[in-house]
């Protein structure tokens, strides 16, 4: 190598020449940054756990929160005061104006019985009444006649007493002059006989007065008896009229026919069930546990759902609570004093009356199962979907 040639230094660059390639520096990794190729953490279990907690909270709200303001039971059914139509007189059924499940109005004619026997009985009762009235009039007419007899006998008594007084006076005069021989003893004897005769006539007149008064009293008693007979005839006539009216049977209340067991031509007896009328006014008997009735009171709002129509929600209210559990009125009530005591939560019937109109209840029948909710407090508005 010659000394005259310039020597190039390694770190120097030539003017106008491209810079030499530089070596790339290695970047320092972040503290939380996973190294290249490392697996990412799985957050799905945490997400599912959170969703599960939300679902459990929603279920808890759905099942436990309503218990703070409502009481619910499915041991409930629709009921009604079903009216039994029975005859009051025995007769043959002449006409039948209704059929199974027919709708009836109050006062509508349902059944007509054969009225001929009872029409004849009514005519006989009318005749008996006229006869009793005639006897009463005759007895009343006899009263003044009996009083006249009493007056006549009293007048005769006065005449007899006057004759007796006169005879006694004549006898005393004859006896006063008989001592001086002014009159004969025969005249004295005749005077004494006349005095005794008039006295006997007076006694007889008194007896006749007593008999006449007794006869007048008997006449008045007969008049009272005749009045009683007239009253009895009036009662018999009224009963005959009632029996005739019973041959037509009317609907006692508006509703529908159920359990019809009579046909035209049947012979019916008093007390025999012919048909039933289910009224339009229905109610619910809900058997709540005794532990649910702590805050239940009459007048509280009730929501009713019918099993046959699950989409139908009816409004109602509590009318009354029965004084006694269902087991207390059972055929064989429990006897806890026997020693075999097992504490069982009892159920108490609660009567619930519908607030809805009859149009909403036309498809509901007594005996249908329902579910009821009694709102013991005002439910929160934001929980309206749970009601």
TrEMBL record:
Stretches of the chain forming a coiled coil according to its record: 122-172
Keywords, alphabetical: Coiled coil, Membrane, Transmembrane, Transmembrane helix
A Pfam family that the UniProt record links to this protein: Beta-barrel_AAEA
InterPro entries from the UniProt entry: AaeA-lik-b-barrel (IPR058634), MdtA-like_BSH (IPR058625), MFP (IPR050739)
Presence of the UniProt keyword Repeat in the record: no
Occurrences of domain p-hydroxybenzoic acid efflux pump subunit AaeA-like beta-barrel (ranges): 282-362
Transmembrane region(s): 46-65
GO biological process: transmembrane transport
Region (Disordered): 1-41
Domain Multidrug resistance protein MdtA-like barrel-sandwich hybrid: 82-276
The name this protein goes by in its record: HlyD family secretion protein
